[in-house]
Design a protein that fits this description.
This is FAD-dependent oxidoreductase domain-containing protein 2-like. InterPro entries: Auxin_biosynth/cation_transpt, FAD/NAD-bd_sf. One of its GO terms (biological process) is ERAD pathway. GO terms for molecular function: flavin adenine dinucleotide binding; monooxygenase activity. Strands 3, 4, 5, 6, 7, 8 and 9 form a seven-stranded mixed β-sheet that branches. This protein has a five-stranded parallel β-sheet with strand order 11-17-12-13-14, covered by helices on one side. Strands 1-2 form a two-stranded antiparallel ribbon. The protein has 362 residues and is an alpha/beta fold. It has eight helices and 18 strands. Strand 15 and strand 16 form a beta hairpin. The structure holds 2-acetamido-2-deoxy-beta-D-glucopyranose (2 copies). The site of one 2-acetamido-2-deoxy-beta-D-glucopyranose has 8 residues, from strand 9. The site of one 2-acetamido-2-deoxy-beta-D-glucopyranose (NAG) has 8 residues, from strand 9.
């Protein structure tokens, strides 16, 4: 899904959706008092928001980037939880062609500053995520990008505006109820809300977003991981030396990046558990699927998974687990919108959202 060629950041299936809304089908009535108006509003100072800001800055446009936290690239202050990026930092290519070299550098953003490349921040092929946070923060400062930090937008809607060709203006407010308006709105928030499916017993699970990253906490435990993407394997890799067993189950089969050529699928850097599974050690990946009929139950302080999938009737999986971890990806935060059921988007953006959620659910 290479809709944003080359400079895409895909971490364990996260897609940094860069959605440009400049058309719409519906205008939500009332006028709002506005304290600040810009031609372009960008929501989110992650890689895509900063990159967009860079080009607007360069071309002298009136823009502002709203960031809900105090840091550029805030997602990466927490994720990946075990802190190793899966985007390669290929520093040497033997070539001098900048385009070519940039194609092999999966982390740096485009800019005219030669030294503003991730290769000067780390020698690791898969750097620590803090390195990316530092880089993104430098990128924002060195390019003087206009970011308003600690500004959490919500209530996005459109008001009629007959003085512009599109006949509408976007309005929104921050957590202090300050109002903002803009002619063009770019939502660059990516997918950052944990995807939590609704099946019975889901509350018995611990989420990837809050599990312990200390392997000692899994010493001698039997662990079931829901999910078979990069975050699931990253978690398994971090604990499989301490656990009795790690079992994994998801809605779809494992998709190996080296087979599918999609960078968001399972990357070799995380796939140690494939070995222990295929070499008949105790870890296992169920050749079965999570379905709507799946149930998690608790019995004597242990947890069990119940599914109607006949393939799942496998001796190893009938045991109960000490911990069930949910690693099922992230979804788009539609609470940004005044009416999440009818956000002021046009068709393309809506279908991206759906695609993105499907993409991350397994
Ligand atoms: C940002 O906020 C976090 C807590 O949310 C805090 O630990 C950190 O020191 C803050 N950083 C800056 C630069 O203010
Ligand atoms: C209408 O759009 C123009 C141009 O973007 C802007 O200056 C003006 O404030 C807008 N009016 C309202 C009511 O939002």
């Amino acid at each position: 899904m290479q809709f944003f060629p080359k400079r895409i950041f895909i971490q364990f299936g996260t897609i940094f959706a860069l959605l440009v809304f400049n058309s719409l089908t519906k205008v939500d009535g009332q006028t709002q008092q506005t304290s600040s108006h810009h031609d372009y509003c960008i929501i989110g100072a992650g890689p895509s928001g900063l990159q967009m800001g860079y080009f607007l800055e360069k071309s002298g446009r009136d823009y502002i980037i709203f960031e809900r936290t105090n840091t550029s690239g805030n997602f990466f202050t927490k994720y990946p939880r075990h802190r190793t990026l899966i985007s390669i930092n290929k520093r040497n290519t033997g070539r001098t062609n900048k385009e070519f070299n940039m194609r092999h550098d999966w982390n740096s953003l485009l800019s005219d500053k030669e030294h503003l490349k991730l290769r000067y921040y780390s020698k690791e092929m898969f750097p620590h995520a803090d390195v990316l946070v530092k880089y993104l923060s430098d990128f924002q400062r060195m390019n003087n990008l206009n970011v308003q930090f600690n500004a959490e937008m919500s209530n996005i809607q459109t008001v009629r505006n007959d003085s512009v060709k599109e006949k509408h203006t976007f309005t929104m407010s921050d957590q202090y109820n300050n109002k903002y308006a803009c002619r063009w709105l770019i939502v660059a928030t990516g997918l950052w809300k944990p995807n939590i499916p609704k099946f019975d017993g889901i509350e018995l699970t611990q989420g990837y977003e809050s599990i312990s990253i200390n392997a000692d906490d899994f010493e001698g435990k039997s662990v079931l991981i829901l999910g078979r993407g990069n975050s699931a394997f990253e978690t398994a890799n971090a604990i499989y030396g301490a656990t009795n067993v790690v079992h994994m189950i998801a809605r779809s089969r494992v998709r190996l990046a080296w087979a599918t050529h999609y960078v968001g699928d399972l990357r070799a850097v995380n796939n140690g558990v494939l070995d222990t599974y295929q070499l008949k050690s105790l870890d296992g990946i169920a050749e079965a699927f999570l379905s709507d009929e799946t149930k998690l139950m608790s019995k004597n302080g242990k947890y069990q998974l119940v599914t109607d999938d006949e393939f799942f009737d496998n001796f190893a999986f009938r045991e109960s687990y000490d911990v069930i971890i949910r690693c099922l990806g992230f979804t788009f935060d539609d609470e940004l919108f005044y009416n999440p059921y009818s956000p002021p988007l046009f068709g393309m953006a809506q279908s991206w959202k759906r695609m993105a959620i499907c993409e991350n659910a397994g």
